[in-house]
Design brief:
The protein is of the alpha/beta class. The chain has a domain of 181 residues: NAD(P)-binding Rossmann-like Domain (Rossmann fold). The protein contains 14 helices and 15 strands. The protein has a 9-stranded mixed sheet with strand order 13-12-11-7-10-9-8-14-15. β1, α3 and β2 form a beta-alpha-beta unit. α1 runs antiparallel to α7, α6 runs parallel beside α7 and α10 packs antiparallel against α13.
Length: 444
C-alpha cells in the first residue's frame, strides 16, 4: 500500500513521463493458469480490430455497442455471430455493472469523447483497460485516468499499437545509442484529416437509424440532432465535442517516439499556425510547435518539436536528408548533431550521416504484440509498455496542441503541476470537460 501511495503522490507532483515509466510494477495479477476474460465497448471499425486482438489471448464474454446493425466493419452483429455465448449490450454502464465480477478487462474503442467515462468506470470496478488513442479528449481527463490507474493497480494499455512495433522500438534504440549525436530538433507529421474539418454545423436533422441509439452515442456530449453521415460512424473526429482532430488521431502514434526516445517531460509551451479557428470543428491543416526542457538526449536546454498535418510536410533543409528523397505522408524526423533519422509511420527508420549517405550496421529491435502485452499484464502483474503511467502524460502533451488549435495564433505557456496555462484564462476552459447532465462519472 505504501508503494501505491508514494507512486500516486509522485504522479500528482510531477506527472513526468520519463520518471513515471521507470516506476516499479505494482499491479495486481491473476494466476498465470487462469483464463483471462474480457469484454469490448465499441466493437465496430477499429473496435473490431481491438476486441479480436485481445481475443487471441483471452476469452470474450461480453460486448457493447450503441449501433446494433450488421452493416459495419465488424460490429455488434458480427460480434454476436463470432462469440455466440457472449452477452451483448448497448449501454456500457449496464454492462460493467452486471458483468464486472465475470470480467478481468475491457477494450474501449469508442469515439474520443467516451474514452474517459468508460475507462474510469471500468477502473473503479477494478478492471484492466485497453483504451484507444488518444487516451482522452481533454487534458483533465488524461490526468484523472493516470491517477485512477495508479490507484487501481491493474493492467492498462493505450491503443497506440506502433509503440510495440519493431519500427519505433528500433528508432528509440538508435536515438539513444548516440549514432547521430544529441538531437537538435524533431518533426512529426500526418496527412490526416481524411474526414471533413474546418466547417460549420449543418442545419436540420435526419431520421435516426433503427439500429442506432443516438442518445447513448452522444453519451457525455451535449445534445444535438442526428445528421446522416456527419458524425456517426467515422466523421466525428473533426468535431470538438467528439474528437481531437488530426492531432488526436495520429499524435499519440507519431509524437510518441519523440517523447519516448528523448525522455521528454511535460511541454512548457505550445503555439499554433493555421487557419482561424472555427466554432465547432478543427482546422483543415495546422502547424504546432511544442517546447520542452532539454534532456540528456537533446542538444540544448530547450527542445522544439514541430507537428504538421493536413498534408503539410517538414522541410528537409537543415537536415542531413538528400533533397531528392520523398518525404512519407506520415512520419517522424530527428535532426541530430551528426545525422538525421527519417522514419515513415510504423516503418523501419532510415538514418542519414553527415555526408547524406545512409548509415548501415545499426541496432534493430523486435516488435511485440500490443494486445498480448496488455493481457500478460493482467496475468503476471507486469506493467505494459504503454500503460497509463506513460500514455497519460504523453496524451496530455498531445492535447496541448488541441487547445492551441482551438485558440488560434499565439504561444500558450503551460504549467503541468498546476494543470493550467499561465498566460490565457480562455485557454484554460478547454483543459476541462463539461459532461451532459445525467452523465456524470465518479472520478471525472
Amino acid at each position: 500500500m505504501s508503494k501505491l501511495v508514494n507512486r500516486r503522490n509522485f504522479l500528482k507532483s510531477s506527472v513526468a513521463s520519463a520518471a513515471v515509466i521507470s516506476a516499479p510494477a505494482i499491479l495486481s495479477a491473476k494466476s498465470p493458469n487462469e483464463t483471462v476474460r474480457v469484454a469490448g465497448v465499441g466493437v465496430g471499425g477499429k473496435g473490431w480490430t481491438d476486441i479480436n486482438g485481445a481475443a487471441k489471448h483471452a476469452d470474450v464474454v461480453a460486448y457493447c455497442d450503441v449501433d446494433t446493425g450488421k452493416n459495419r466493419k465488424g460490429g455488434y452483429g458480427n460480434a454476436a455471430e463470432t462469440w455466440e455465448s457472449a452477452t451483448g449490450y448497448t449501454d456500457f454502464r449496464k454492462m460493467i455493472e452486471k458483468e464486472h465480477k465475470n470480467l478481468d478487462g475491457i477494450t474501449i474503442s469508442t469515439p474520443d469523447h467516451m474514452h474517459a467515462p468508460v475507462t474510469m468506470m471500468a477502473l473503479k470496478h477494478g478492471l484492466a483497460v485497453y483504451t484507444q488513442k488518444p487516451l482522452t479528449r481533454t487534458i483533465s481527463e488524461a490526468r484523472a485516468l493516470t491517477l485512477a490507474a495508479a490507484d487501481a493497480g491493474v493492467s492498462t494499455q493505450m491503443g497506440n499499437q506502433h509503440h510495440s512495433g519493431a519500427g519505433y522500438r528500433t528508432l528509440v534504440e538508435i536515438v539513444r545509442s548516440g549514432k547521430i549525436g544529441k538531437i537538435k530538433t524533431a518533426h512529426s507529421w500526418s496527412n490526416r484529416p481524411v474526414w471533413p474539418q474546418g466547417m460549420e454545423r449543418p442545419a436540420g436533422s435526419d431520421p435516426i437509424p433503427k439500429t442506432l441509439d443516438w442518445n447513448l452515442w452522444l453519451g457525455v456530449a451535449q445534445e444535438r440532432p442526428y445528421k446522416k453521415d456527419v458524425y456517426h460512424a467515422f466523421k466525428w473526429r473533426g468535431w470538438f465535442d467528439f474528437g481531437a482532430g488530426a492531432l488526436g488521431d495520429m499524435g499519440c502514434h507519431i509524437i510518441d517516439p519523440v517523447v519516448w526516445s528523448l525522455d521528454l517531460g511535460p511541454a512548457k509551451s505550445v503555439s499554433y499556425v493555421g487557419p482561424k479557428p472555427m466554432a465547432e470543428t478543427f482546422p483543415k491543416s495546422e502547424v504546432l510547435k511544442y517546447k520542452f526542457p532539454g534532456t540528456q538526449y537533446t542538444a540544448g536546454k530547450q527542445f522544439t518539436l514541430t507537428w504538421h498535418d493536413g498534408g503539410k510536410l517538414p522541410p528537409l533543409k537543415g537536415s542531413h536528408v538528400p533533397s531528392n528523397v520523398d518525404v512519407p505522408p506520415n512520419g517522424v524526423m530527428f535532426i541530430g548533431e551528426k545525422g538525421t533519422i527519417l522514419c515513415a509511420h510504423g516503418r523501419t527508420p532510415v538514418v542519414y550521416a553527415e555526408d547524406q549517405s545512409v548509415m548501415t550496421g545499426l541496432p534493430t529491435v523486435a516488435g511485440l504484440d500490443h494486445y498480448g502485452v496488455w493481457v500478460d499484464g493482467i496475468k503476471s502483474g507486469k506493467t505494459p509498455n504503454s500503460s497509463f503511467a506513460y500514455a497519460g502524460p504523453m496524451t496530455e502533451t498531445v492535447l496541448l496542441g488541441v487547445v492551441a488549435a482551438r485558440m488560434g495564433a499565439g504561444e500558450l505557456k503551460w504549467d503541468s503541476k498546476k494543470m493550467a496555462f499561465t498566460n490565457s484564462d480562455k485557454a484554460n476552459q478547454f483543459v476541462h470537460h463539461q459532461y451532459r447532465s445525467g452523465w456524470e462519472i465518479k472520478g471525472l
